[in-house]
TrEMBL record:
GO MF annotations, alphabetized: kinase activity; RNA binding
A GO biological process held by the record: mitochondrial RNA processing
PROSITE patterns found in the cross-reference section: RAP
Keyword set, alphabetical order: Kinase, Mitochondrion, Transferase
Name the record gives this protein: FAST kinase domains 2
Residue ranges constituting the RAP domain according to the UniProt record: 614-664
Record has DNA repair as a keyword: no
Gene Ontology cellular component annotations, sorted alphabetically: mitochondrial matrix; ribonucleoprotein granule
SMART domains, alphabetized: RAP
The UniProt record lists the keyword DNA repair: no
Subcellular location: Mitochondrion
Length: 683
C-alpha cells in the first residue's frame, strides 16, 4: 500500500509541476495575439477553439500539439487581465507517466516530494512578483471613465484586455451621447489614432473565440461608428458570424437582426440574411419574446419567401394577447419592412394604438403613417384618431413635425379639417418658420386636398405668396412650377412668381427636364387657369407647349345603361373631348329651366356634363380634390352644368334605384355640392 500511495503521490506532483497554479495563458502560438502577450484569469466560456463548445468540468484540461493549458479551481475562472510572463507550451501529452498501482513501481521519497513542492512554490512566488495584473475592464466601466473615443483607445494601448469588443462597445456608447458635429470630429480622431489599427487587428484575431453575442454587438458598434463596410475588419466579422450562426439563441437572433438592419446590401450581408431566414424558419415557433419576433420581421427583407412571411404572421397572431402598446406600435414598421400586408394584424394593432394614443410621441405616429403608406393600408378610424390627438395637443408639437404628418395624410387623400385649420392659422400668425421646402410642401397639401378655411383663406394665400417671393432668386424651376401650379388650383395668382415662371429660359429648362411629361401637364394647367379664371394675365395665350398624351378613358357601363333607359338613344353623348384638354364621360343638352332633355343637335339648350369619378375624391368619398375642383370650376366657365356621379355609389345600387338617383341629379335645379369648395379668385 505504501508503494502504491507513493506512486500516486509522485504522479500528482508531476501534474502540479507541469501545470502551474497561476491561471496564465500564452496566446501567440495560436496566432491570437502578439508575441509575449498572455491573458491571465481567462474565462473558458469566452474561448471557442475549432468550434468545440464543451465545458471544462475537470480540474485540469489538456490539449495536444501546440495547445493551451488551462487550470481551473471549482470551475471558477475570472476573465480579463494581460501580463507578459512566460507560459508553458506543451508538445506532448501532459501525462509523462501513467498513474500506476503496481507494487513494483519505485516510490518517491518524502525528501524528493518536498524538493518538488518547494521548487514549485518558489516558481509561483517568482511569477507573482514579476506579474502585474490589471483591473478587469468592462465596456460600461470604460464608457463611464472615458469622455471621448480617443480616451478608450488610450486605455487599450496601455493595457489591452480580452475581449476587444469591450472597447468598440464603449466607444459606441460614448458616441451616442455626443452631438452630430462632435461625433463627426471624434470619429476622425478615432480613425487617426495609432491604436485603432491594433484594436481592429486584435478584434479580427479574437472573433472566433469570443462569445457569439459579443461578436454581434461588436459588429453592430463597428458599423455604427462609421467603419466602412467594405473594410477587411467588417467583412471578416461578417464571415465569422456566418460560420458560427448555429450558435444563435433567441438573444443572438435579436442582435443579428438589428445588425442586418443597420448594414447596406453586399454579398456577405445577403449570405448572412439567407442564413438568418433558414434559421428563423426552423426556430420561429420557439421565439418567446415579441420584441425578438419583430426584430426578425424587420430584417429578413422584402424578398423573403412568402411562406416564411406567412409563418411569421401566424406567430404574431398567436402572440396578440401578449402585445404591449409598444409592440402594437412597432408592428406596422415590422410588416412594412418585409412588405407583408396582414389586414387582421394591422386592424388589431390599430385598435390598440387608437385606444392608447395619449402620450404617444409624434415620431412613432409618423412611423405608423409611413408604414401604412408603404403597405397601402387605409384605416379611416386610425387616421382620424391620430389627427384628433395631434389637433388636441397641437401647441406642444413643432410645426415641421405637423407638416410632415400632413404630407403623409395627403398621400392617402385624407383631409382632417380641424388639424388643417389649426395649421393654416399658425402659418398666418407665425410665418417666420417657412422656408423654401416647407412653402412648396404646404401649397401642395392644401391645393391637393382642396382645403380652405373660410375665415383666413385670403390671408393664408397672401402670406404664402409673400414667402415664395422671398425665395425666387434661389428656387429651382421645377419647385417654382409646382408652387405656381398649386396657387392656380386654389384660384390665386401671385404676380412675381408667375412672371418669373413664364420667362423663356425657365420654360425651356422645364421642357428639357427628365420629368418632361409631368412638367408639360402642369404648364397646360397653368395655361388653362390663366385663360379661364379671372386672372390678370394674357401671356399664356401665346405659350407654345407640346401636346398632352391621350387621356385614358374609363367608361362606366352601368351609368351608360341608366342614361339609355332614362333618356333614350340620341339624347346623350359619351366620352366627350373638350377644349383645354378636358374630358367628360357624358354630355346632355337641356332646356333653360332644366326640365326637359333635348336632342344633341339642338344648339340652344343648356349643356350638362356628367363626370364619373373614382380616385379624385378625398378619403371620406365626398370632398373633391384639387384637380377635380379646378375642372368643375373651368367647366362652369365654359357654360356647363356639372353633375358628379360617384362610381362606388352607382355600383351598389340596383338598376331601378340607379335610374331614380340619376334622374334626381339631372333634373335638379340646385348646384352640385362642389360649389362650396371652389376657391374664390384672388391675386
Amino acid at each position: 500500500m505504501n508503494n502504491r500511495a507513493g506512486s500516486i503521490l509522485w504522479n500528482l506532483r508531476q501534474f502540479t509541476t507541469v501545470s502551474p497554479t497561476s491561471t496564465t495563458v500564452r496566446l501567440y502560438p495560436l496566432g491570437f495575439c502578439r508575441p509575449k502577450t498572455v491573458y491571465s484569469n481567462w474565462n473558458p466560456r469566452n474561448l471557442l477553439l475549432n468550434n468545440l463548445e464543451n465545458k471544462m468540468q475537470s480540474s485540469i484540461r489538456y490539449l495536444f500539439q501546440d495547445a493551451l493549458i488551462f487550470k481551473s479551481e471549482d470551475d471558477d475562472f475570472r476573465t480579463k487581465g494581460i501580463s507578459t510572463v512566460t507560459a508553458l507550451i506543451v508538445n506532448r501529452l501532459l501525462c509523462p507517466r501513467r498513474l500506476c498501482f503496481d507494487s513494483k513501481q519505485s516510490p518517491v521519497s518524502d525528501n524528493e516530494l518536498k524538493k518538488i513542492n518547494f521548487h514549485h512554490q518558489a516558481s509561483n512566488e517568482d511569477v507573482s512578483t514579476k506579474e502585474t495584473k490589471p483591473t478587469p475592464v468592462t465596456f460600461r466601466k470604460l464608457s463611464q471613465e472615458c469622455n471621448s473615443l480617443s480616451d478608450v483607445l488610450d486605455k487599450f494601448s496601455e493595457v489591452p484586455t480580452f475581449p476587444s469588443s469591450n472597447y468598440f462597445l464603449a466607444m459606441w456608447t460614448i458616441a451616442k451621447r455626443m452631438s452630430n458635429d462632435q461625433k463627426h470630429f471624434e470619429k476622425q480622431l478615432m480613425f487617426n489614432h495609432p491604436a485603432f489599427i491594433q484594436l481592429c487587428e486584435q478584434m479580427m484575431r479574437e472573433a472566433k473565440i469570443m462569445y457569439y453575442d459579443h461578436l454581434l454587438f461588436s459588429l453592430y458598434a463597428i458599423v455604427k461608428l462609421g467603419v466602412p463596410q467594405n473594410t477587411l475588419l467588417v467583412q471578416t466579422l461578417l464571415r465569422v458570424v456566418q460560420e458560427r450562426i448555429n450558435e444563435c439563441d433567441e438573444k443572438c437572433l435579436s442582435v443579428l437582426s438589428t445588425v442586418l438592419e443597420a448594414m447596406e446590401p453586399c454579398k456577405n450581408v445577403e449570405v448572412l440574411r439567407a442564413g438568418l431566414r433558414i434559421l428563423v424558419d426552423q426556430q420561429v415557433w420557439k421565439i418567446e419574446r415579441v420584441f425578438t419576433l419583430q426584430s426578425v420581421m424587420r430584417s429578413i427583407g422584402k424578398d423573403a419567401p412568402v411562406a416564411l412571411k406567412r409563418k411569421l404572421e401566424m406567430k404574431a397572431l398567436r402572440e396578440l394577447d401578449r402585445f404591449s402598446i409598444l409592440n402594437s406600435q412597432h408592428m406596422f414598421e415590422a410588416l412594412a419592412a418585409m412588405d407583408h400586408r396582414s389586414i387582421i394584424l394591422l386592424n388589431e394593432c390599430s385598435k390598440m394604438v387608437i385606444g392608447n394614443i395619449h402620450g404617444c410621441p409624434l415620431k412613432i405616429l409618423i412611423n405608423i403613417m409611413q408604414s401604412c403608406r408603404d403597405l397601402r393600408y387605409r384605416n379611416l378610424d386610425l387616421f382620424n384618431g391620430i389627427a384628433d390627438y395631434v389637433a388636441t395637443t397641437f401647441d406642444i408639437w413643432k410645426l415641421k413635425q405637423v407638416l410632415f404628418l400632413l404630407i403623409l395624410f395627403e398621400n392617402f387623400a385624407f383631409r382632417h379639417t380641424g388639424l388643417m385649420d389649426l395649421f393654416m392659422k399658425k402659418v398666418v400668425d407665425e410665418p417666420g418658420f417657412l422656408n423654401m421646402k416647407s412653402i412648396v410642401s404646404i401649397l401642395h397639401v392644401y391645393s391637393s386636398l382642396n382645403h380652405l378655411y373660410r375665415g383666413q383663406t385670403r390671408e393664408f394665400l397672401e402670406v404664402m405668396a409673400s414667402a415664395l417671393t422671398g425665395y425666387l432668386h434661389h428656387i429651382s424651376s421645377e419647385n417654382l412650377l409646382n408652387a405656381v401650379c398649386s396657387f392656380c388650383l386654389m384660384n390665386h395668382f401671385p404676380l412675381a412668381a408667375i412672371n418669373q415662371l413664364l420667362q423663356k429660359d425657365i420654360i425651356s429648362e422645364l421642357l428639357r427636364s427628365d420629368d418632361k411629361e409631368r412638367n408639360v401637364h402642369r404648364l397646360h394647367v397653368l395655361a388653362a387657369c390663366l385663360k379661364l379664371d379671372d386672372a390678370p394675365y394674357h401671356k399664356a395665350v401665346d405659350l407654345v407647349l407640346p401636346p398632352l398624351p391621350s387621356a385614358r378613358l374609363y367608361p362606366n357601363a352601368k351609368v351608360a345603361a341608366v342614361l339609355n333607359s332614362l333618356l333614350g338613344e340620341g339624347h346623350f353623348a359619351a366620352n366627350v373631348q373638350l377644349p383645354h384638354n378636358y374630358h367628360v364621360d357624358f354630355e346632355i343638352r337641356m332646356d333653360s329651366s332644366r326640365s326637359h332633355v333635348l336632342p344633341l343637335s339642338d344648339v340652344n339648350g343648356v349643356t350638362s356634363a356628367t363626370d364619373t369619378q373614382r380616385s379624385t375624391y378625398c378619403l371620406d368619398l365626398t370632398h373633391p380634390r384639387g384637380f377635380l375642383a379646378m375642372k368643375v370650376r373651368h367647366l362652369k366657365v365654359m357654360g356647363f352644368h356639372v353633375i358628379l356621379v360617384n362610381n362606388w355609389e352607382m355600383e351598389k345600387l340596383q338598376m331601378k334605384d340607379a335610374v331614380t338617383f340619376l334622374k334626381s341629379q339631372i333634373y335638379s335645379t340646385e348646384d352640385p355640392p362642389t360649389a362650396d369648395v371652389n376657391f374664390q379668385s384672388t391675386y
